[in-house]
Amino acid sequence: MKSPLQICLLAMLIMGCSSNSSGHKYYKFSDQTEAIEKQIRAPETPIYLDQVSILGVSNQQAFVQFTQPNTVNIASFHFWAEHPESMLTQLTLSYLNNRGLTVIPRTLAGDLNTTRYSLKLVVDEYAGHYEKGAILSGNLYFYQLQNGNTHLVQTKRFSFENQLQDDGFDALVAAHKSNWLLLLNDVEQILTGQLRQNNK
Amino acid sequence: MNEKAYIESKPKFSVIWIVPIIAVLITGWMLYQHQSNKGHTIFLKMDNADGIIAGKTEVKVRSVQVGIVESLKLQIEQNAVIATIRIFKDYDTLLTEDAKFWTVKPRVDETGISGLNTLLSGVYIELLPGEQGNLANLFTMQDQPALIAPDIEGVRYKLKAANAEVLDVGTGIFFRNYKIGQVETASFNEKTLEMDYGVFINSPYDELISNNVIFWVNSGVEVDLSTEGIKVSTGSLSKLIKGGISVDYPPNSVADSIAQQYTQYKLHKNFAVALERRFDLFDLYLVEFEQSIKGLKPGAPVEYRGMRIGTVEQVPAQLVRDGQPLYFQQNNTSIPVLIKVEYGRIYEVDEQAKQYWQGNIEKWIENGLRASLKSGNLLTGAVYIELDFYSAAKPESIAKHSVYPVLPSVPSGFTALSEQVMALLNKLNGLPLDAALVEATDMLTAYKQLGAETEQLIKDLNNKKVPEKVEKNLTQLQGTLTQLTSSLKQFEKTLSTYQQGSGVMDQLTDTLSELESLSNTLKPVTKGLNEQPNMLIFDKNASEDPVPRKR
Question: What are the TM regions of this chain, as residue ranges (chain B) (predicted)?
Fold first, then answer.
């Protein structure tokens, strides 16, 4: 005769295996190059792009939302398809290249002794918000690399918020992307201005 | 008057005697009738008379009363109770030596609930009439109801099980999920250390039992783990609860001749084990691992890129030569594992597969074929041996110094990762930092010496103004500068190994990127495990994520 323990284990196995699947969902920005107006410029000094850094609780693949003034929810079933730092870096790279700037990932940089520029984006808030929709804030840092030394040329604080167009995580993803494109538009203008100033 | 008394003799038989004679005859006839109607008296021996009441408990055959318990008597010396049972007239013929008795009372077991009707009526004794032998009057009560009535047609076979699960009497025999018989007897053979089962296959399904059928224990639950997920299928409820024995023909085979009664078969642990017998053409190889073989057990699969080609035979290999393990004599630290390459798994025509394997194995080894340990199950930690080509593997060939040919292996998993990290650290350790520091110290010393000499020179020039001494000192200064330049070049060469774009930096950067990516991937899992440690077995209990709302 089967022992009760074996029957219980069998029941647990069947119960565990027969229940509904957990329903994890993964999100990614839509085609990164769409809706970005392409621009052709004369070759300029290349800019090294550091990987975007996200500080704090948003530095993870799970969606982060402020559900109340002091309450943060970390999603259990909704995730970015890849780490947001990597995703935002890719979007920044493709955006700036589409806009005619020569941008090279810092990890692939070669000679640091030649004069180059370097861009670093540090994000401290990147989350959904119960009132503001999607929020994005942080700092950008623009450096000049010369003879192996790094000089901070410009820094600027940025902050964006964008109301959702609809209910749901898809709308939140779209709002995040809009925020980031607004930031990249500012970044492009800053970089263009700096390069023009230094070339004079 | 001659008067003489006349004595009339009395009749010898008085009519009045007819009355008692008739009474005696009637009594005799009644006694005869009573005796003849009384039936047959038998004695039933039982361990205890639980629920049986003298004068009340009935004996039934197919719910028809055929007798009654007349009395109960305790036999202390035999630790038994003897019941005197009267079987009614005309049922005497049922009481042959092979007749069986058991008590019908409420029972709850794996076959279900039975005998509930006796809760109110009280227990009764069921008689399974015998068919063979002489009439008897002493029987023994059985503990369990008789499973198979003598009038049921079928054929009996024997099963032997060495490692299979122990099954109960009454366990069903299934042919393609249809019940065709059951286990009739089960006993453990203390000499062979095997379970002996007697099984009964109901007619006409005995015609399915051919000489080439295979029997295996079917647990009732079939779990199919594939890329589409886990599929669990079960049979009937009784099969699920009680398990069962499945019988079928081997794959790609048809029924052989019908087996004779009492033919003996082997009962296999499961279907996969039952098929093992097909792979009787194999070669043994040794694989020596320079890493932990924890989790590797005999019977684990040997695969080539996911296709099973053999089985692990011994872990570690117990090969003895001159009275001591072989690996004692080889003076190495590796752990030998004995594997079987089963040609029937590679191709159906195993002779052809053997020819193909043996004709190419040396070439494959030269081209980088290596064995490695792979994790087969994260929960149980079981591992298996995988053969695959490694382009970066050191050139090797099949070693034949041992009893069996030795397949080369490569480390895997954490061992491989730790070896790579160790190689990186060793490379860092091997950098000539000490030499560079010594050179730098020498250089500073040379500078100091140069300064002193220059100072001395200036003093001499100021004091003595000797041109030849100036020239000498200049020559000395030139030598010192040459030495300084050489030292600086060496120092620059040392530093260049740390520069961005160098091999060391690239390797270090790639390793860190992979570690960071792995860490990001594991974060949701560790968060889930932290919130619900049993989530590896059960679903997440986490509530739904709040849906972002438009305002």
Answer: 12-32
Q: What is the DSSP string of B236-271?
A: -HHHHHH-EEEEEPPTT----SBPPTT-EEEEESSH
Any chain A CB within 8 A of the CB of B524? yes
CB contact set of B325 (below 8 Å; sequence gap of 6+): B318, B319
CA distance B80 to chain A (A): 28
Q: Residue range B407-424: average pLDDT?
A: 72
pTM for this one?
Answer: 0.39
| Region B283-299 average pLDDT | 86
Instruction: Name every chain B residue with its beta carbon within 8 A of the beta carbon of A17.
Output: 223, 230, 232
Going by C-alpha positions, the residue among A28, A127, A59, A94 that lies closest to residue B516 is: A59
Taking the Cβ of residue B540 and every Cβ of chain A, the question of whether any pair is shorter than 8 Å is answered with yes
Q: In chain B, what's the furthest Cα-to-Cα distance?
A: 228
CA-to-CA distance for B220 and B235, rounded, in angstroms? 6
Q: C-alpha distances in angstroms, B444 versus B314, B431, B449, B455, B478?
A: 64, 22, 8, 16, 16
Which whole number is the average pLDDT over A131-145? 93
- The amino acid at B107: R
Q: What is the pLDDT of residues B213-237, one digit of tens each?
A: 889 888 766 665 544 555 666 656 6
Q: What does the pLDDT read at residue B226?
A: 45
**Cβ-based neighbours of A114, under 8 Å, separated by 6 or more:** A145
State the amino acid at position B88 in one-letter form. F
Closest CA to A93 of A83, A84, A104: A104
- Residue tagged 């980088």 (tokens): B368
Confidence of residue A111 (pLDDT cuts 50, 70, 90): low
pLDDT in tens, A66-107: 999 889 999 988 999 989 999 999 999 999 988 888 888 887
Find the residue in A nearest to B543 (Cα).
Answer: A76
User: Is B548–A172 a contact, with Cβ atoms under 8 angstroms apart?
Assistant: yes
Distance between CA atoms of B540 and B284, rounded to whole angstroms? 46
**Domain positions in chain A:** 23-199
Span B112-124, average pLDDT: 76
Instruction: Work out the pLDDT band at A122, boundaries 50, 70, 90.
Output: very high
| CATH code reported for the domain at A23-199 | 3.40.50.10610
| C-beta separation of A87 from A80 below 8 A | yes
Distance from A61 to chain B by nearest Cα, in Å? 7
End-to-end CA distance of chain A: 91
Identity of the residue in A17, A60, A166 whose CB atom sits nearest the CB atom of B230: A17
SS3 per-residue string spanning B88-113? CCCCHHHCECCCEEEEECCEEECCEE
C-beta separation of B221 from A18 below 8 A: no
Indicate the burial class of B108 (C-beta count within 10 angstroms; 0-12, 13-18, 19 or more): exposed
Beta strand A62-68 with A133-146 is unpaired
